[in-house]
Amino acid sequence: MKNPELQGINIVLVGNFNPSIFQPVWFASEDLIRRGEADAAKIEIIHPDLAIFDIEGYRIEVNQIRFSISTTQAPYFEVIRDLTLGTFRSLKHTPISMMGINFLAHFKIDSEEKWHEIGHILAPKPPWGDALDSPGLRSLTMEESKRRDGRAGHLRVKVEPSVKIIPGIYLDINDHFQKPSGSKTTGSEEIMTILDNSWEASLERSDKIIRTLLEQYL
Predict the structure, then answer these.
(1) Is residue 57 part of a domain?
(2) Are strands 50-55 and 153-161 parallel, antiparallel or unpaired?
(3) Helix residue ranges per DSSP H, 53-145
(4) Residue 132 lies in a domain
(5) Cis status, amide bond into 48, omega within 30 of 0
(6) For residue 78, is it within any domain?
(7) Number of domains present in the structure of the chain
(8) What does the pLDDT look like over 101-129, one tens digit per residue?
(9) CA-closest candidate to residue 18, choices 84, 83, 63
(10) Largest pairwise CA distance in the chain
């Protein structure tokens, strides 16, 4: 199967954050990144309500309820996982209740015929009858509401025509975890344990979903 033309991963945490802490100099002071990386960071904003900056290979965005770290470069996939683990092991009292491991990919389809075929299979046209003229797949979301690993959360897969690779298909796989309803922990440890233990399985599952949907077309 062909590799994606474009791909990326982001880790999103939902909790209670102090954005002004999250700046390159702090990461360097905690030995989470090198001093040279901190000095070379491209800062958009550091504010009590919002922090956004780029460090070589990845981007960090934090507001008071959401932390996001993302990369579009495969060699940095493990880097952002390790940086997230290191960050919230240092900030272990930070309340975190939810996490998403999100895999995004754009795949080129060799012909418009195959591209349309994928849409016809995923969103059959006959049920629409003559209610719509020339209907076509714009966005399809499927959800597995009961996780196979028994954890609280869900898995969602979004399929759309790519707006960046034409003809192409865009997939957005949201592997969502949350604390169980009876959890009594208040800091970051429980979610960080899930991240540490579930990372490889999450990426493998994303790969399986993509292969199941697209292998015959790529």
Answers:
(1) no
(2) unpaired
(3) 77-90, 112-122
(4) yes
(5) no
(6) no
(7) 1
(8) 999 999 999 999 999 999 999 999 899 88
(9) 63
(10) 64
